[in-house]
Amino acid sequence: MTLKNILSATALSAGLVSALAAPLAAEEKTDFKLAWSIYVGWMPWGYLEDSGIMNKWADKYGITVDIVQINDYVESINQYTAGAFDGVSATNMDTLSIPSGGGVDTTALIIGDYSNGNDAVILKGEGGLADLKGKPVNLVELSVSHYLLARGLETVGLEEADLDAVINTSDADMIAAYATSDVEAVVTWNPLVSEITGSNPDANVLFDSSMFPGEILDLMVVNTETLADNPAFGKAVAGAWYEVMGLMAAGDDGRYSFTTVKPVEYTVPSDGPVGDILRACGRHPWRPSHLHYIVKAPGYRTLVTEIFPEDDPYLDQDTVFGVRDDLVMRYHKKQASDFPHGMALSGKVTEPFLHVEFDVTLATETG
Ligand SMILES: [Fe+2]
Predict the structure, then answer these.
(1) Cα-to-centroid distance, 14 and ligand 1 (Å)
(2) Under a CB-based contact definition with an 8 Å cutoff, are residues 4 and 26 in contact?
(3) Quick one: pLDDT at residue 26?
(4) What's the gap in Å between 226 CA and the centre of ligand 1?
(5) Which of 57, 130, 155, 265 is the Cys-Cys partner for 240 at CB 3.0 to 4.6 Å?
(6) 365: CA distance to ligand 1 center in Å?
(7) How remote is the CA of residue 362 from the centroid of ligand 1, in Å?
(8) Residue 268 Cα, ligand 1 centroid: separation in angstroms?
(9) Tell me: the pLDDT tens digits for 128-139?
(10) pLDDT tens-place string over residues 60-88
(11) Ligand 1 centroid – CA 220 distance (Å)
(12) Using one digit for the tens of pLDDT, what is the confidence trace for 161-220?
C-alpha cells in the first residue's frame, strides 16, 4: 500500500475532512515523458526508446515512459520547465540556471558522464584564446557553452565584455552558422564539434572541457516532486539506462575486451524457504565468485551464463550448482607496464593487474 492509500484510508475511517489529506496526497500517475537532445553522452536515450529497453523496464513497473528527441537543447529544457516533460537531458549548470532557477525543483537522476573534451571553443583560423578579444562568438546563450567560454576567457585574463559580442545561436543551426563568412568563433558540443573540425581544416580548438575535468556533468534530471510521488518512474528509467550501459559490442573480428573489478564469492539469501532447504540439506549458502554474461549475435542462440575463476575456494561446491568445466577461467597477474592500449584505463594503471582471456562459442539458431 502506498503512502497515499494509507493516508486516504486513515482519512476515510476517521471521518476527517478531505482538506486535511489533500496537501499530503501524492501525485501518482502512470504515464511519463522524458525529453533529450543531440549530444554524444545522451545518444543512449534514443537507443533506450528504439530498442524497446525503456518499454521493457516501464512494463515491469506497470507504467509507460516515452522518450522524445527535441532538436533544440534549450527548447527541450524550457519544455521540461514548463511541465511538458517529467525529465530532460541537461548539464548540471543548465539544470541550475533554467528549471531550478525558475522554481521547478529538479533532481539529477542519472549522471551519464562528464564532458571530457566534448564541449569546445573553436576559432576559425590561427590564434589562441586571447585572440577572441574584439571578435563575435556564436553559442547557445546562457547554456553550458556560455559557461565554457567564461572559463576559457578567464584563463587569459579576458571576460565577455572584451568580446565584440556573444551571438545566440541554436545548436540546431550551429553547423550552418559556422559555414557563413561573418562567423569567426563558436562554442558548441559534440557531435557538432567533430562535425565542424572534421569538415573545416581551418577550425582551431582553443579550449575544451577536458581542461577542467568533472566540472560539466551530463545528466538526466527529473521533476523532484514527480519522482518522490512515483518511485517506480525513477527505478524504471535507471534500470533501463544501466542495462544499456552494460551493453558491449564485439569488434568485426569477434574480439571483445573490458576492464572491471575482480568479483568476490557471496552467499545466496539464506532466510526464508531457501535457507530452510539449505539447512535441511546440510549445505552452506556460498557461491564462487563469477562474472555474468549474456551474449547475443544475429543467427545464433542467445547464451546466458556465468564464468568462474579456477582458484575460487567454492569452485567445487557452488550452492546453486552453476559451475561447469568449460565455464572456468584463469586470472594471470601482470605488471602495470603490460596494460593494453586502447582501453579507458590505459596509461592510468600503476599497479599489477589481473588478466583473463575467455572465448565464447555460440550455437547457431538451427544447430
Ligand atoms: Fe551473480
Answers:
(1) 48
(2) yes
(3) 59
(4) 33
(5) 57
(6) 26
(7) 21
(8) 9
(9) 999 999 999 999
(10) 999 999 999 999 999 999 999 999 999 99
(11) 28
(12) 999 999 999 999 999 999 999 999 999 999 999 999 999 999 999 999 999 999 999 999
Report CA(264)–ligand 1 centroid distance (Å): 10
CA 42: distance to chain centroid?
A: 7
Tens-digit pLDDT profile for residues 267-306: 999 999 999 999 999 999 999 999 999 999 989 999 999 9
The mean of the pLDDT values for the chain is 91
**pTM for the predicted model, two decimal places:** 0.72
Cα 249 to averaged position of ligand 1 atoms, centre (Å): 22
Please classify residue 295 by burial: count the beta carbons closer than 10 Å to its beta carbon, then call 0-12 exposed, 13-18 middle and 19+ buried: middle
Q: 287, exposed or middle or buried, with CB in 10 Å at 0-12, 13-18, 19+?
A: buried
Distance 28 CA to ligand 1 centre (A): 34
Confidence at residue 344, expressed as pLDDT on a 0 to 100 scale: 81
Residue 23 pLDDT greater than 70, yes or no: no
What is the whole-number distance in angstroms between the Cα of residue 201 and the centre of ligand 1? 51
pLDDT in tens, 248-269: 888 889 899 999 899 999 999 9
**Torsions phi, psi for 330 (to 5 deg):** -125, 125
Residue 315 Cα to ligand 1 midpoint, Å, equals: 14
The SS3 of residue 132 is helix
Domains and CATH numbers, the chain: 27-114+216-245 (3.40.190.10), 119-211 (3.40.190.10), 266-355 (2.60.130.10)
- Please say whether the beta carbons of 185 and 166 come within 8 A: no
The three cell numbers locating residue 277: 532447504
CA of 250 to the centre of ligand 1 (A): 23
pLDDT > 90? residue 24: no
Q: Tell me the CA–centroid distance for residue 330 and ligand 1, in Å.
A: 18
Instruction: Concatenate the DSSP letters of all residues of 17-81 into one string.
Output: -HHHHGGG-----SEEEEEE-S-GGGHHHHHHHHHSHHHHHHHHTT-EEEEEE-S-HHHHHHHHH
User: Ligand 1 centroid vs 161 CA: distance in angstroms?
Assistant: 58
**Cα-to-centroid distance, 83 and ligand 1 (Å):** 41
